[in-house]
UniProtKB/TrEMBL annotation:
<comment type="similarity">
    <text>Belongs to the PEP-utilizing enzyme family.</text>
</comment>
<feature type="binding site">
    <location>
        <position position="757"/>
    </location>
    <ligand>
        <name>Mg(2+)</name>
    </ligand>
</feature>
<feature type="domain" description="Pyruvate phosphate dikinase AMP/ATP-binding">
    <location>
        <begin position="62"/>
        <end position="364"/>
    </location>
</feature>
<dbReference type="InterPro" id="IPR015813">
    <property type="entry name" value="Pyrv/PenolPyrv_kinase-like_dom"/>
</dbReference>
<dbReference type="InterPro" id="IPR002192">
    <property type="entry name" value="PPDK_AMP/ATP-bd"/>
</dbReference>
<feature type="active site" description="Tele-phosphohistidine intermediate">
    <location>
        <position position="467"/>
    </location>
</feature>
<feature type="binding site">
    <location>
        <position position="778"/>
    </location>
    <ligand>
        <name>substrate</name>
    </ligand>
</feature>
<keyword id="KW-0547">Nucleotide-binding</keyword>
<keyword id="KW-0479">Metal-binding</keyword>
<dbReference type="InterPro" id="IPR018274">
    <property type="entry name" value="PEP_util_AS"/>
</dbReference>
<dbReference type="InterPro" id="IPR010121">
    <property type="entry name" value="Pyruvate_phosphate_dikinase"/>
</dbReference>
<protein>
    <recommendedName>
        <fullName>Pyruvate, phosphate dikinase</fullName>
        <ecNumber>2.7.9.1</ecNumber>
    </recommendedName>
</protein>
<comment type="function">
    <text>Catalyzes the reversible phosphorylation of pyruvate and phosphate.</text>
</comment>
<keyword id="KW-0808">Transferase</keyword>
<feature type="domain" description="PEP-utilising enzyme mobile">
    <location>
        <begin position="435"/>
        <end position="515"/>
    </location>
</feature>
<dbReference type="Pfam" id="PF00391">
    <property type="entry name" value="PEP-utilizers"/>
</dbReference>
<feature type="binding site">
    <location>
        <position position="781"/>
    </location>
    <ligand>
        <name>substrate</name>
    </ligand>
</feature>
């Protein structure tokens, strides 16, 4: 095994592809050296040394010492110095670097090799005593902090005390003698804290630092970070040892960081900061205010401190040239670290830069347009989930935020409006043209119309999978849930938080991306759906195989789905239409009826309303497929709950309060999720399915006439476990179709299919597909029934399950490929056995989750269906799955 990889002087033993071995930093230092860029020479101990270290009781391979000595000698030859030489010492930095950039690992130690003797030599050689002692005090601070465990605040206190005693404010005010005195104090402090002196032998210093890097792989911070980001412990970290270059040698020296493009906007322009006469992390540490790199940025910021472009024009030009070269070489925006020593530029790091979602999109599209990457690569560069941030209005980053409370970021985007405390009020005010935020302790299905009317939803109770959160995400409305500090008083129509009271009509802004609740109207930025977004989506559409449909039932949602590029509706939940103000009474009348005649009378009132809904939906979708699911939820969800509501309904329907209460008791279920719902309702009350089927078919005939486009409805039966169930309901639907054909003289084209959302249905898919013409996997219910977990009750234990590593991700967020996915695969295979061309899709929250979309592509589904706002995410995820 090779234990040491050298780099420097225009060549290297490593290269950027060797990231697993050399870590990100080491691999890129080698690559830059190979490119002939000015990189201080050095060497990398690969991750294999780390693996060896832990496999052998924290010891090193026998050859390592000699190999390091040889590598150090090479560095010395290139720099004309010798490590540990009292007259002409080589100083180095020791830098950790794992495969994935990992906070929690050891910090870098600079200026290693300095001691009481070598510091004098450095002073003499540089003819700069101040520089030498400034470096030494930095070294003692860093080494003590990261290697010896003597916290840096000790040294900062000593420095502050010294400065105030001597009337200095800035570090740059201190002279060589000041630093020399401080070095004495620093060393005394180390002696005091550790009971032994600061190590003077450069070899001890070096191996101390190397050991600290490997040791830090197993510190608590690193372990936690690895767990949170699923980084395997077996990867290990590399160590880089590199000759020092000095940014602290006076006015022609500097240190800085830069991005080749603006990481927040994506604009193609060098972006960064630097500090004259400084070292290492001074720029980010905020000790002095850094200066802009370019004149353009300096002017834009209105700064009077000179830019690098004007202060160090030669080094700047060189840096500009190199940053362009690196971007072209890596074919991506780079994050760079550099130092200028007496006018000469040195490169110390390059890597792909972190960026916002907005910048990511712009950079990908522009790199493709510049010919640096292909359109397919651009499609692969953007994280689909990050699009969520771009599709909603966002709080202007420059705006002032008066945070009154913080809850969970339940559904992204920002919204502002007058607060209201009831769904009805929201609807009324919206009709008058007022924007509202619906504030509830928590929401229930009866609040849907108010949620639709509101700009955003705020609740004081409930988690990320609460009703408010799930429905809001489905609607693409901003939502902050579970803001526990809020006291909501429905009677007084007030909201109190930390002694501040907001009345009905007061304006609040919510930020569903951060969970913040803000006072007043905060300025926002509207999403930009044209430009780069549209371009990238177009490229994605060329690549993907999966079709993308939307879950939608209201005209507004259907239009939005179309505008986001949906290719049909995969799930239209008819029950959402039942809650609308105009119809809930007829629905309740139907449920309260004791006999079929009574139910039919109520259903007759509902029929024209449902038909109108479907006509509008078909018109908007203009011939694209529309899947309509028959009534699914338990009937008691439609009954009134509070005494006041019951009294109200009793009066409106002219029935006794007792009658409603009796029906409530009759319909009460211990476990409604597994109760009287889905096709079970259609089997007990076929007249309901008959009315719905009739409404669908009549609407199809009307819409086809109106638009001139053939309408092919897909009627979907929910929650079947057996073929017999499906056949009974199918017969009702077929009969309704015949009746409509006879009455209208039109010829209908339609399909009848089923949800596969119970394990039994997946297992018996072969026989079910004999009569069912399509399957839509309802992976929400399938997850509940496969896992035996109720989604509404999962909050208390699923979180800890994820934390303990029992499950990797919440199966309601991302499909459980091993279990639920297996059932989907079985359903696909067996369904195709009896109907090879059966149309297959999924609906539910998973349809908008990129990992789940990839799974759907892999098992060969025809489409995924998701909420309208997630359609672009699904389009991009489907494209990436196909790449
Ligand atoms: P991080 O991973 O925290 O960025 P680095 O190893 O990149 O840590 O080091 C941080 C900073 O230290 C660098 O940006 C650079 O300014 C400085 N530095 C590291 N090595 C050297 C060196 N050989 N010469 C001069 N400065 C260095
Ligand atoms: Mg760095
Ligand atoms: Mg279901």
């Amino acid at each position: 095994t090779k234990w040491v990889y050298s780099f420097g002087d225009g060549k290297a033993e490593g290269k950027s592809e060797m990231r697993n071995l050399l870590g990100g930093k080491g691999a890129n230092l080698a690559e830059m050296a190979n490119l002939g860029l000015p990189v201080p020479p050095g060497f990398t101990l690969p991750t294999e040394v780390c693996t060896y270290y832990y496999a052998h009781g924290e010891t090193y391979p026998a050859e390592l010492k000699g190999d390091v000595e040889a590598a150090l000698a090479k560095v010395g030859a290139l720099t004309g110095k010798t490590f540990g030489d009292p007259a002409n010492p080589l100083l180095v930095s020791v830098r950790s670097g794992a495969r994935a950039s990992m906070p929690g690992m050891m910090d870098t130690v600079l200026n290693l090799g300095l001691n009481d003797e070598t510091v004098e030599a450095v002073a003499k050689l540089a003819n700069d005593r101040r520089f030498a002692f400034d470096s030494y005090r930095r070294f003692i601070t860093m080494y003590s902090d990261v290697v010896l465990g003597v916290d840096h605040h000790h040294f900062e206190e000593i420095l502050e005390h010294y400065k105030s005693q001597h009337g200095h404010t800035l570090d740059t005010d201190l002279s060589a003698d000041d630093w020399a005195k401080l070095v004495v104090e620093y060393k005394a402090k180390v002696q005091q804290e550790l009971g032994k002196p600061f190590p003077q032998d450069p070899q001890d210093q070096l191996w101390g630092a190397i050991g600290a890097v490997f040791g830090s792989w197993m510190n608590q911070r690193a372990i936690t970070y690895r767990r949170l980001h699923s980084i395997p412990e077996s990867w290990g970290t590399a160590v880089n040892v590199q000759a020092m270059v000095f940014g602290n040698m006076g006015e022609t020296s500097a240190t800085g960081v830069a991005f080749t493009r603006n990481p927040s906007t994506g604009e193609k322009a060098l972006y960064g900061e630097f500090l004259v006469n400084a070292q290492g992390e001074d720029v980010v540490a905020g000790i002095r205010t850094p200066q802009d790199l370019t004149e353009r940025a300096r002017k834009a910021a209105g700064s009077d401190k000179p830019s690098m472009e004007s202060a160090l024009p030669e080094a700047f030009k060189e840096f500009e040239r190199i940053s362009n070269a690196l971007e072209t070489h890596y074919r991506d925006m780079q994050d760079l670290e550099f130092t200028v020593e007496k006018g000469k530029l040195w490169m110390l790091q390059t890597r792909s830069g972190k960026r916002t979602a907005k910048a990511s999109l712009r950079i990908a599209v522009e790199l493709a347009n510049e010919g640096l990457i292909s359109q397919e690569e651009a499609v692969g560069r953007v994280d689909p989930a990050s699009l969520d941030q771009l599709l909603h209005p966002a709080i202007d980053p420059k705006a002032e935020r008066k945070v009154v409370a913080t809850g969970l970021p339940a559904s992204p985007g920002a919204a502002a409006g007058s607060i209201v405390f009831s769904a009805d009020e929201a609807e009324t005010l919206k009709a008058q043209g007022t924007k509202v935020i619906l504030v509830r302790v928590e929401t229930s299905p009866e609040d849907i119309h108010g949620m639709h009317a509101a700009e955003g939803i705020l609740t004081s109770r409930g988690g990320m999978t609460s009703h408010a959160a799930v429905v809001a995400r489905g609607m693409g409305k901003p939502c902050v849930s579970g803001a526990g500090a809020l006291r909501i008083d429905y009677n007084a129509q007030t909201l109190t938080v930390n002694g501040q009271t907001f009345k009905k009509g007061d304006i609040l802004t919510i930020d569903g991306s951060t969970g913040q609740v803000l006072a007043g109207l905060v300025p926002m930025q509207q999403p930009e759906l044209s430009g780069e977004f549209a371009t990238l989506m177009g490229w994605a559409d060329k690549v993907r195989r999966l079709k993308i449909r939307a879950n939608a039932e209201t005209p507004a949602d259907a239009r939005m789905a179309r505008s986001f590029g949906a290719e049909g509706i995969g799930l239209s939940r008819t029950e959402h239409m039942f809650f609308d103000a105009g119809r809930i009474l007829a629905v309740r009348e139907m449920i309260l009826s004791d006999d079929e005649a009574g139910r039919r009378a109520a259903l007759a009132k509902l029929l024209p309303m449902q038909r109108d809904d479907f006509v509008e939906l078909f018109e908007i979708m203009k011939g694209l497929p529309v899947t309509i699911r028959l009534l699914d939820p338990p009937l008691h969800e439609f009954l009134p709950h509070t005494d006041a509501e019951v009294a109200d309904v009793a009066k409106s329907l002219g029935v006794d309060v007792e009658r409603i209460e009796r029906r409530q008791k009759e319909l009460h279920e211990v476990n409604p999720m597994l109760g009287f719902r889905g096709c079970r309702i259609a089997i007990a009350f076929p007249e309901i399915a008959e009315m719905q089927a009739r409404a669908i078919f009549e609407a199809a005939v009307i819409a086809a006439k109106k638009t001139g486009e053939a309408v092919v409805p897909e009627v979907m039966v929910p929650l079947i476990a057996t073929k017999a169930e499906f056949d009974i309901v199918n017969a009702v639907i077929q009969k309704a179709a015949k009746a409509v054909e006879e009455e209208t003289g039109a010829k209908l084209t339609f399909q009848v299919g089923t949800m596969i959302e119970l394990p039994r249905a997946a297992l018996r898919a072969k026989e079910i597909a004999e009569t069912a013409e399509f399957f839509s996997f309802g992976t929400n219910d399938l997850t509940q029934t496969c896992y035996g977990v109720s989604r509404d009750d999962a909050g208390t234990f699923l979180g800890p399950y994820v934390q303990k590593g029992i499950i990797e991700v919440d199966p309601f967020v991302s499909i459980d490929v091993d279990g639920v996915g297996e059932l989907v695969k079985i359903g696909v295979e067996r369904g195709r056995q009896s109907r090879p061309n059966i149309k297959l899709g999924i609906c539910g929250e998973h349809g908008g989750d990129p990992a789940s979309v990839a799974f759907c592509d892999q098992v060969g589904l025809d489409y995924v269906s998701c909420s309208p706002f997630r359609v672009p995410i699904a389009r991009l995820a489907a494209a990436q799955a196909a790449l």
